[in-house]
Amino acid sequence: MIARYTRPDMAALWSESRRLALFLEVELAATAALEAAPSSPVPFGTATRLRQLYAQVGPLDPMRVAECEQRTQHEVLAFLEHVEEKLGSDARWLHFGLTSSDVLDTVLALQLREATQIILRGIDDQLLPALRRQATAHQLTPMIGRTHGIFAEPISAGLVFLGSYAEIERAKVRVQRAQKAISVGKLSGAVGVYGSGCFSPDVEVAALSSLGLSVESVPTQVVARDRHAELLMALSLLGSAIERLSVNLRHMQRSEVSEVEEAFAPGQKGSSAMPHKKNPISAENLCGLARLLRSSASAACENIPLWHERDISHSSVERVIMPDATTLADYMVQRAAKLVGGLSVRVDRMAQNLASSGDLYASEKVMLALVRTGLSRQHAYELVQRHALACVAERGGPSFLDRLQTDPQVSERLSQDVLHHCFEIATHLQHVPTIFARTLPE
Hints:
two-stranded antiparallel ribbon; Fumarase C, Chain B, domain 1; 64% helix; 6 strands; two-stranded parallel ribbon; Ribonucleotide Reductase Protein R1, domain 1; elongated; mainly alpha
């Protein structure tokens, strides 16, 4: 799945070679901060010499680290062994006073910060603009609104896209908040109290600041996992927002609705058995992936309650869900943007569906107009409902408007002008520009 869906920048981020490079980046930042501390045992300039040598000898070898790990059964010790092979005696100062999770969690923070930045860039550059274009293009395109899947009252087609625009904006803000929450590292040792005597809170702040990270306020051996769960919950809500849009677009593509249509490329096939088929495959795909994305949030919540100062039960889970969830979220953003951007909005079919409602959409306005004349709401409701249900039962009979006009209980209270005004589509959509203005103020 990862290989098939991952874009190059996301694939590079989660590659083993990039992870090892980040391991070394964290170790060098820690060493540089430590050598600058008063009474430091680390010779001044060690980090600079190591960095210069690293630039000369080239990148670390994931295969060699894997080979060392086969023997050590410990990934950080295998990494350090390989680094010492590459960089020589100065490398003994790397990892001085640290524990493995100092490196692992700080590197994970760097990866997640970058992964969320990729996702946010896709939202801002592709998905939101695609939704905005469709929304503004159809701001006042009338269509029948539906509740419970049943014809209700008129809306504009633009509101379908504008609602998702606003929801994706909220999802983006949640991801941004979660990005800040996970941009946290720790270099506080085996149980989080700087017990080695090498690092102090000030040295930790200096090292993490150089990486653009904040310090975990109360660490154990690890960074608290509620931070990671917050991110995956935010990504799940982003996925659910995309799914809600996709569910609507799937419904609108049903044969008996046919109000929108996904792009269908030359040479594309819809069915192996039925040549006539053009299926909503992108919308369906996104609905399925949203389910998968939400499952990662559940797993992340299970990772929060670790034993005492740390156990390792979260580690195996995170090696799967962190690359997968960020990759899925990024893919969903890209595919949703392509779906919306290539969507054909069938204005003619929307008009046909609206007309096929038999003007029953005006029932509320007629009822309220009768109430304004002094009729009780209950009486007005029953009066209008009787004619509306008769229209549904007697297809091809008098229209809803005709029935109302010939009913003396209605005609004696409502003039022809007032009654006809209830059926004008423009009155139903008169406040749509206000909704757009408060959602797209610029």
